[in-house]
Structure formats: structure tokens, C-alpha cells
Write a structure and sequence with these properties.
mainly beta, four-stranded antiparallel β-sheet, 10 strands, 0% helix, globular, binds zinc ion
Length: 139
């Protein structure tokens, strides 16, 4: 099996229940946030009592954009370049997050469709390891 590394630490994890985003939730007002934060993002809340929480896996595709040309550095991608979609997803927890879409043909994506969090490779590094990130896959 190909060795895997995470594109960034502290943003997502494969848990016993499946892939999850690593977020925070305010104990005072219940507002979730991603990525983790020491401060509550709710402008009406002045009592930041944050605790770590898992977010996902289900959500609804709110919007998406096609990355039709290779992104500039420091972004990386597999050669030859394949256009991909970036989705904006409303998680069931009441939080809007961004992630790459896991779909063969980005033109088939439908705003409003149900999606699920997944952890997949985005490129292979110089040492032959799969670099993993979170994505959203239509159900
Ligand atoms: Zn709060």
C-alpha cells in the first residue's frame, strides 16, 4: 500500500466513525467553527468557551466553482492537470465550509445535492507518498 501523509495537520482525521473535520464548538452558544479556534466566531457571543468537536460527514452542496487551469504555486497538482471543482458545503452541523469535490466529471455537480466527507489523495509527493486531504463526494 502506498504510504500516506496529510496535506496539513489538525484539519481532518479518519475516526472510528469515518472521516471528520476537526472543528471547535462554543459551549456557551453552541456555534461550531472550522478550522479549530480558541475564539467563538458568533458576533453575538462574548463568551468564548471553545471545545474540540468532530464535524461531518454529511452536508449539502451550496455552491461550487471549476478550477479550469492549474493553480499558481504553492498549490500543487498531478500531471497532466485535470480540472477539478471546489465546493462550498453546508454541513448538517450548521457550518459552511470549503473543500475539493470528489467527482469524475465536475460538470455533473448539482447545487443542493447531498454530499459526504471523504479523505482522498490530491497528489503524490517526490517520495511517492499520497498526500491526503478532505473532499466532498456527492451521494
Ligand atoms: Zn459562542
Amino acid at each position: 500500500m502506498t504510504e500516506q501523509i496529510l496535506v496539513a495537520e489538525g484539519f481532518f482525521a479518519e475516526t472510528a466513525d469515518g472521516p471528520r473535520l476537526l472543528g471547535s464548538r462554543c459551549r456557551s452558544c453552541e456555534a461550531p467553527c472550522f478550522p479549530r479556534s480558541a475564539l467563538c466566531r458568533n458576533p453575538d457571543c462574548d463568551d468564548s468557551q471553545m471545545e474540540e468537536t468532530h464535524l461531518g460527514p454529511r452536508g449539502t452542496l451550496w455552491s461550487c466553482a471549476l478550477q479550469n487551469y492549474p493553480p499558481p504555486p504553492p498549490a500543487r497538482y498531478e500531471e497532466p492537470y485535470q480540472p477539478y471543482a471546489i465546493g462550498v458545503v453546508d454541513l448538517d452541523e450548521g457550518l459552511r465550509v470549503v473543500g475539493r469535490m470528489s467527482v469524475d466529471d465536475p460538470m455533473t455537480l448539482q447545487v443542493g445535492s447531498d454530499v459526504e466527507l471523504t479523505i482522498e489523495p490530491i497528489w503524490r509527493d517526490d517520495e511517492g507518498r499520497d498526500v491526503m486531504t478532505w473532499k466532498f463526494k456527492p451521494l
